Amino acid sequence: MAHTYWKVRFEETDPVRIDLLIGLLNQAGFEGFEVGDQALDAYITAGHPGLEALLWSLERDGFPTADFSPVEDKNWNEIWESSFQPVVIPGKVSIRASFHPPIPEIPLELVITPKMSFGTGHHLTTLLMMEALFQLNLTGKRLLDFGTGTGILAILAEKLGAARILAIDNDPWSISNANENVAGNHCQSIETRLLDHLPTGETFDLILANINKNVILKELPAFLKSLQRGGSLMLSGLQEEDLTDVRLAMQGTPLQELSCSIRDPWARISFFRT
Question: Considering 76, 136, 168, 272, which has the largest number of Cβ atoms within 10 A of its Cβ?
Fold first, then answer.
């Protein structure tokens, strides 16, 4: 079989730093991860543009590459399943795979098939968004989940009472994975669409966007058009240092900051439309 992937090894053992590194690599196009006792192995398609510059940037930021070698195609689902563990927000929700046993003492359960779409609850940005959803009254609300990934935020929103959720993503694999998870959690109010932009002519009470700063700033005019007066915009996929640019972009708009939560180095920020 042809060598079509590169394995990049990072000798990192700190769980917080591994979480940060996976988030950065995921956004940069890496497709698989294996977390070991002494290292993180990350996999990316051979010839991926900008890989050398990315690795140099990561080394400058304290994540030196320990090994860089070609590998054959792998079963990414098997890799993901082998490292996927349940996530629990105490007293609120558990996120597990179908091959994990239920956690009966947790009142709410989400079953997320651990494929390579982003959003299993492991990354801090997803957890920050989920925690914030529990602070809202979603009963009867219309939601847009922009960049839905696995569909985890849309699924939680329905479980918390939202009446209609539109979940969009520009990645066909993510939409397929989200559809599987929507069905597996017996959701009835979620519609998924393969889109790389916000739909026109529709408005929502709450827009969720767990993506990254550049996409958020690019889509801000569309968010404003799609957000109902009195609605909220909840953003993550951000690092704490990104908050300055996001707040500057909101100046002169009808969006007022509602709340912000930081779990170093990641951040979640919400705005209210007057």
Answer: 168
As for how many domains the chain has, the answer is 2
Do 34 and 158 lie in one domain? The reply is no
Same domain, 43 and 136: no
**What backbone phi and psi angles, to 5 degrees, belong to 238?**
-105, 145
Tell me the helices (H) and strands (E) count for the chain, helix number first.
8, 14
| Domain ranges, residue 200 | 119-273
**Relative orientation angle of helices 172-184 and 152-159, to the nearest 10 degrees:** 30
Question: In this predicted model, what pLDDT tens digit does every residue of 124-150 receive, in sequence order?
Answer: 889 999 999 999 999 999 999 999 988
The model carries a pTM of 0.76
- Buried b / exposed e along 180-215 (16+ C-beta atoms within 10 A): bbbeebebebbebeeeeebeeeeebbbbbbbbbbeb
